[in-house]
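Example record

The entry below shows one chain as it appears in the dataset: sequence first, then structure tokens.
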Amino acid sequence: MRRAISITVLSALAGLAQAQDTNNVDCTNFLKFGTNADQTLAAFNNSPETMAWNWFVCLNQSDAKGYNRQWELFKPSDQVYLPNGANPGSYDSRMTPPSEVLRQAQALGLNPNRVLHDLNAVQQVDGLTLEMGGAAVPETQKGHVVRFQLLMSQDTYDYIVKKNVYNMNGQDALTSNLTFPATAWEVKAAWLWIGADMAYKKRLESDGYYVAQAYYPVGTGYKVGYAALSGLHVVNKLTPNWVWTTFENVNNHKYTVTKDYPPKPMKNLTGPTSAAIPVNSQFQTNNPALSKYELIGVEFQPITQVLANSQLESAFQDTSSCLACHGTAAYSKNNGYFNFAIPTQGGLTYPTTPLPEKDFTGYNKLDFVWSLKRAQWQR
């Protein structure tokens, strides 16, 4: 079955731009920006926050069989950048979870028609982790790390395979910059681990979290169970600098904590932005299943700006800019990947203003797609 589900945002794009009809989202051909990308761009420019919410609604609609949400059918990055650097095959192909995972899933009564997400990543960009904690978290779950996952749409994947940059060999052979198609998408998800704690699962669901099936490796075995979606970056290339939107659950402060001693509730320090607040209210009212998620903000202009997701950029929110950081995605045959970390007296910080082109002399730019850094050498 093809995974490229098309999506448009609203049939009346003008109404979309004013966020006046948030209850009538037409998700036909959305991943291609409808039948007229120029009209979609015009509507986006009128109200980026409204378009961001429409995308979020469409990505969170059920698939044709009603088992998974649309974005869950995107290709996971660990099935693109393979450990041996091999060609990852067709977009529709998916790796079967290990037999031990399937055995545990069956014993727990998990739904075999739903995706089992492989949540094998725990480090954020700064190399740190985010932990669960707070009065709402069971004692047995406190200290467990939030887990992460990166997925991409078919047009993103097809370009990576076409350019042979799914491994380091292909990237090392580049002679020019990459230019992804305008219909390229990526999402990055943050998950609170539940496991088989059904009381905890019920509590998170009552606080508006979307709960999925998942697993992750532990030594030579696996943990299998449920996980709750706490944050989601949604990124596409409607504009040349891409569009960077980020959502998170309004109750995250009850379940995740800072690294202070004693720990404090983790809160977003960068938003929701003033432009996002009224749009959040409208869409939350008209979309009950998503009513506990909020848009933090949107970036698309190459200017100085700060925007973070408390679940994905927890400890460096004040120096987080998706556009500026991803704008440094570049590779050099002699120097490797561009280093965007900026040394300071307090440690490291990150760019919040796009760097000048002269800084990338000798590099081939990767068109904002830092996931390419996960590629391995084909030996």
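Notes for this example: The longest helix spans residues 48-59. Residues 1-20 have pLDDT under 50 and may be disordered.
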